[in-house]
Amino acid sequence: MSDNELLKNSAPLPSVRRLPLYLTVLEEFEREGKEWISTTDFSEVLFLKPIQVRKDLAHTGIIGKPKKGFKVTELISTIYNFLGWNNLTEAFLVGAGALGSALLGYSGFQRHGLNIVAAFDVSVNVIGKSIHGKEILSIEKLPDLARRMHVRLGIITVPAARAQEAADCLVSAGISGIWNFSPSKLHVPPNVVVQREDLSSGLAVLSVKLGRFD
Amino acid sequence: MSDNELLKNSAPLPSVRRLPLYLTVLEEFEREGKEWISTTDFSEVLFLKPIQVRKDLAHTGIIGKPKKGFKVTELISTIYNFLGWNNLTEAFLVGAGALGSALLGYSGFQRHGLNIVAAFDVSVNVIGKSIHGKEILSIEKLPDLARRMHVRLGIITVPAARAQEAADCLVSAGISGIWNFSPSKLHVPPNVVVQREDLSSGLAVLSVKLGRFD
DNA sequence: TAGATTGTTAATCGATTAACAATC
DNA sequence: TAGATTGTTAATCGATTAACAATC
Predict the structure, then answer these.
(1) Mind listing the pLDDT tens digit of every residue in chain B (214 residues)?
(2) Are the beta carbons of B92 and B153 closer than 8 angstroms?
(3) Nucleotide nearest to A49 (CA to C1')
(4) What is the distance, to the nearest Å, from the Cα of residue B192 to the centroid of all Cα atoms in its chain?
(5) Nearest CB to A204: which of B45, B46, B83?
(6) What are the residue ranges of CATH 3.40.50.720 in chain B?
(7) Neighbours of B196 (CB within 10 A)
(8) Which chain B residues are closer than 8 Å to A153 by Cβ?
(9) CATH architecture designation of domain A89-201
(10) Does the predicted TM-score (pTM) go above 0.85?
(11) Closest nt to A68 (CA→C1')?
(12) C15 C1' to A58 CA distance, Å
């Protein structure tokens, strides 16, 4: 019944979430021309305990050198490899509103192995228009195009009320993963992976933390 | 040394993150005119275990009725209360790029107690322009305005390299919380709360889950 | 009443942290 | 060599789940 039923035997998800954080530090070190980085280096910048960094990095399979740490370039490519960010995954985006447009315009995804190849909407007001150089297509064309282009990933940025509908469309198009930016819980078959990216969860945490100071 | 040092004695953060999810179900029930909702109702829609829902709701302090569950309207207002979403927090947004514009255009924040009252940028290309009806001001005006308007919250949507600078500016303006959409770790004094909302963390999780199916 | 659902106390599970020997 | 840092094994901590009596 759990979301993670098929996902055993890998790094703990909290560790996976921290890996991109390590990448930002690593890239900084690389720019500065440093060859080695230790877990204490990480811990000082990120306010984490060195032992936690060591455990996290161990999950990627990298092996360090006592007294030195890890080779910066090697660790970067190991993490990229671990995350599968060295080969591009092509994605369709559904919902070309404010948030969808923002994601279309975010250039950083390319470096993270994500390539949004097309965007779709239901509204005649945006269909045919172009946002950040990408043409918005009618949602009706999605299933056919997805199969022809072998697109594996769908990004949902429609309002909550339309999210399930968008998910159904993507599933019927044979997609294998969904990045869901709507606050809705999606019902999909067990072979489809869903990652919820819900701003309201983050805002809830922030609100509670802030409230503690009143 | 931990981020949560000052934040003891409240609901566990994973529970807090789930509360907005319950709200979407509750609002659906309310629209349908239902008076009562049980933890099994929640669990069926959200694929959670009833016991987890019960534990989560207990943290808000609400008391249910055996055999009936919880009063829909009462539970909604209890959660809103718990999150502090019934009175508006005013916020400044720093960085009027693609993501910043999207957040400026997101009408859902009002319902979640968040009111973005002004946006700031460093670029002369956007200063003076208006996005979704909100004028973009020069970052130089931020400290003075923040103090005069008693703004408590800052939202950072600048590129990683400018994030610390933006945080310093907000901190010097007396802000007490930061919602950080950049991938950088921010260094702030202990009385300032930071909530990181990092897309790359979510993408990392999604990538690992997807990779598991290859 | 009978039975569904609550609230509470205890058991389990998984992630974080500690301790320490191995190593360069 | 001496000491910093690694990798590993064990202890702790906190969240999830189970069990069950209380209740309407």
Answers:
(1) 333 334 446 899 999 999 999 999 999 999 999 999 999 999 999 999 999 999 999 999 999 999 999 999 999 999 999 999 999 999 999 999 989 999 998 888 999 999 999 999 999 999 999 999 999 999 999 999 999 999 999 999 999 899 999 999 999 999 999 999 998 899 999 999 999 998 999 999 999 999 866 6
(2) yes
(3) C17
(4) 15
(5) B83
(6) 89-201
(7) 21
(8) 206, 210
(9) 3-Layer(aba) Sandwich (3.40)
(10) yes
(11) D5
(12) 14
